[in-house]
Specification:
By secondary structure, the chain is an alpha/beta fold. Helices cover 40% and strands 14% of the residues. It has a single domain, classed as Alpha/Beta hydrolase fold, catalytic domain (Rossmann fold, 3-Layer(aba) Sandwich), CATH 3.40.50. It has 11 helices and 6 strands. It is globular.
C-alpha cells in the first residue's frame, strides 16, 4: 500500500481537545495525505467512553485510514484499534499512554474536578500540562487552545486520565501500530510508552528529540515519521 492509497489520517487531539495544536503538523504534511481532525466539545465534560462514541461516529465511512491519538486521546485510539471499524488499517500513538501515566497521583482523582486548571500560574501550568516551555510564557497556539475550553472540561479530562486503564484493549490490537515518543517529555513519562511496548512488542517505536507537544514543536520530523509509517503499510 502506498501513500497515494490513503484517504485519511484521522487525528485525535490532546488535553485541550480543540485540534488547534495540529496546525503546524498538518502544514508539514504538505497535502501528501488526506487529514481529518476530530475536535471534542469545548463545553461538555465528557469521559473516555463518551468521546469514543463521538470519534467512532466521525470516522470516515470508507477506508483505508489510520487513527492518530495524541496524548490525552491515546486511550481513545487504543479502544478503537482494539475493535477497528472497516477501513481502519493502522494506529499511531503519539506521546501518550494506555493507563494512568502518573499512578502516584491517582489519589487526587476525587479532587481533580476542583482543580483551578486555567487559574494556575503559567510557571506551574506550562511544564505540567504542555512540557518544556518557558516558565514565563506558553506558545501562542497553546494559549488560544486553552482559552477556548471550559475549565470544567479540563478538570473532567484530568480526572479521566487519573482513572484510565486500557491495557486489556491494548492487548487486543492487531492492526499495525506506530508509537511516537519525545526524548524530553515531562508530562508523559517513559514508563508509559514502555508499558505499551510490553503489551504490544510488535509496535514500531520512534523517539524524536523534543518536549511533550511533539507535533507542535517538531512538525517536520513528525510528518516524516508518519509518512514513513503510512508508506510501509
Amino acid at each position: 500500500m502506498t501513500i497515494g492509497d490513503f484517504k485519511t489520517l484521522v487525528l485525535l487531539p490532546g488535553l485541550d481537545g480543540t485540534g488547534l495544536l495540529f496546525r503546524p503538523f498538518l502544514e508539514a504534511l504538505g497535502g501528501r495525505v488526506g487529514t481529518q481532525v476530530v475536535a471534542y466539545p469545548v463545553d461538555q465534560p465528557l469521559g473516555y467512553a463518551e468521546l469514543e462514541v463521538l470519534v467512532r461516529a466521525a470516522l470516515p465511512k470508507k477506508g483505508p485510514y489510520v487513527v492518530l491519538g495524541e496524548s490525552f486521546s491515546g486511550p481513545i485510539a487504543i479502544r478503537i484499534a482494539a475493535d477497528p471499524p472497516t477501513g481502519m488499517v493502522g494506529v499511531i500513538l503519539c506521546v501518550t499512554f494506555a493507563k494512568n501515566p502518573h499512578p502516584l497521583l491517582a489519589w487526587l482523582r476525587p479532587w481533580a474536578t476542583e482543580l483551578p486548571v486555567k487559574g494556575l500560574p503559567t510557571w506551574l501550568r506550562a511544564p505540567f500540562m504542555w512540557g518544556e516551555w518557558s516558565a514565563h510564557r506558553e506558545p501562542l497556539e497553546v494559549q488560544h487552545a486553552t482559552a477556548a475550553v471550559d475549565e470544567a472540561v479540563f478538570r473532567h479530562r484530568i480526572a479521566a486520565v487519573l482513572a484510565v486503564d486500557e491495557t486489556n484493549a491494548l492487548s487486543h490490537i492487531r492492526v499495525p501500530m506506530l508509537l511516537m515518543r519525545a526524548s524530553d517529555d515531562h508530562v508523559v513519562p517513559r514508563a508509559a510508552s514502555e508499558h505499551i511496548l510490553d503489551v504490544v512488542p510488535s509496535a514500531q517505536v520512534v523517539e524524536l528529540e523534543g518536549p511533550h507537544l511533539l507535533l507542535l514543536s517538531r512538525p517536520t520530523d513528525c510528518a516524516r515519521t508518519v509518512i514513513r509509517f503510512l508508506e510501509a503499510l
